[in-house]
Amino acid sequence: MNALSRRKFLRLSAAAAAALAGLPRVGQAAAGTPIRTEVAVVGAGIAGLAAARTLAQSRWDVVLLEARERIGGRIWTRQDLGFPMDLGASWIHGISGNPISKLAKTIGMETVPTHYGAIQVYRDDDTPLSEQEHNALLTRYRSVLTQTYKMRAASSVERSLGSAVAAVIAQQHFSAAEIRDLHYAFNTEIEHDYGAAIAGLSLKYWDQDGELDGPDVLLPGGYRQIIDYLADGLMIRQGAVVTHVAYGDHGVQLLTAAGQEIQARYAIVTVPLGVLKRAAIQFQPALPISKQQAIAKLGMGLLNKTWLKFSTPFWDGKPELLGYIGAGKGRWAEWLNFHHYSGQPVLLGFNAAAYAQTMENWDDNAIVDDALSVLRTLYGSAVTEPEGYAITRWRQDEFAGGSYSYLATGAVPQHFDDLARPVARRLFFAGEATHRRYPQTVHGAYLSGIRAAGQINDLG
C-alpha cells in the first residue's frame, strides 16, 4: 500500500465509513468521533510494541491501545526503592542470536551474566550444603528426570510430568531428606521456569520449547529501557481497555470500556493468555474453535517476586543465588543476591506455582513476615527488618492473569500455532503464548510481534 492510499484511508471517505458500518456492532459507543487508523494493536507489551514499531517503520498508521496506565505489560520496572526493580521479566535468556540482546547493545545497556552454579543451598536447620552434597542432589534429580524421559518414550498415554516423577521416586529407596531435596530441585529447575507445578505439566510436551545459546544476563538499569526505546514515536493510548472486537470483510471495529470506538483495517491482539482465558474481550464473530481450544488447553503459569531492601547485607555476598530446602514444597526456595549485581543491599525472592498462588491471597505484611521467617532460619538474628519491599501478584492482575504460558496436561505444541494463526485476514495475534519455539520469554514475545507485523505487510 502506498503512502497516498493510507492517507485516504485515515480520512475515511463516506464510502469507506459506510463499509465499516457493515461490521457487526458491539455494544454502544460513547458520543464522539471514532478513532480511525489502519492498524489497531491491542496491548503495549513488548509484542505489541514490536509489531507497532515494525509497521510504523513501513509507513503504516498504527494506534496502540493499552489497558494499563503504563506500557510494558509483563515487563515492569519500578524505582520506588531507589533503584530499578524488574517485577516482571528480568533476564535476557541466551544472548547468542537473541534480538533482545541486540536491542540492548543498540541502546547501550549494561548487562551482567548470571552464573547459576554460583549458588549456596541451605536446609531448614540452617545447614549449608557442601559442594559435594549439592552435586549429589543434582545427580539424583537428573537421574529421576532421565527415568521420566524413558517413561515418556515408552508410552503414548497422556499423563503429567508430576505423575511420572512420583512413579519413579516410588521405585527407588530414597530417604525422606532425599525426597525433600528432589522436591526442591524440581521446583527450582522446572516449576520456576514454567510457572506451573509438575503435576500440571504435560509429560510428553512440557520441554518442547527451544533455548538460545550463551549466558543469561540481567539488566541492572531495568528492562524498561528497551520498552521506552521501542515505544518512542508511537501513538499509544493508555487506559484504553478493549472489551469488544468485531471483524469482517470491511475491517475491524474495537470498543473500549469507556465507550471509545476504534475503526481499523486490521487489528493485532497481543493480550496475555490469561486475559483471553477469562474472555475479557468479546469477539464477533466468535473466534475459530481451534483458537478457542488453544486458549482453553494451554496453561497460564505463575511466578511471583518479592524484592526486599535492607540497610546492609547480612548474607554471604559471594553466591549469586541462595537456595532453601524447606518442609513446605516451593516455599521461598530460591533467592537472587541482587547485591552481587548492583551493589544494593537487596534480596529478590521467588515463588512459583502452588505456593505463589497461595501467597496471592495474603496481605503484604504476611508475605514479608513469611520471607523473613525463612531468612531468619538461615541467618538468625542477623536478619533485620527491610527498609522497603515490592511484591507481585500476577495471577490477580486483571491485565495479565498470570506470568507466562506452558503446555499443560492435555495440551500439544500445535496449540501455540493455533493461537498465533490469523483470523479472516483481519485479526492477527502475538505474545509469548503464540510463539511455539520460544514461549515464556521476552524474545519469543518480541519475535511474535515482528511476525504479526510481517503478516500485515504481506497483505499490503
Helix content: 25-40%
Radius of gyration: 24 Å
Query: In CATH, what is the homologous superfamily of the domain at 3-73 and 222-299 and 410-459?
Result: FAD/NAD(P)-binding domain
Gross morphology is globular
**Nearest-integer average pLDDT:** 93
Summing up helix and strand content along with how strands pair, one would put the structural category as alpha/beta
Span of the ends, CA to CA: 5 Å
CATH class membership of the domain at 3-73 and 222-299 and 410-459? Alpha Beta
The residue ranges in which pLDDT falls below 50 over 5 or more consecutive positions are 1-31
Largest sheet: 8 strands, mixed
Query: At CATH's second level, what is the architecture of the domain at 3-73 and 222-299 and 410-459?
Result: 3-Layer(bba) Sandwich
CATH topological fold name of the domain at 3-73 and 222-299 and 410-459: FAD/NAD(P)-binding domain
Strand content of the residues, in percent? 15-25%
Describe this structure in a few short sentences.
The chain is an alpha/beta fold and 460 residues long.
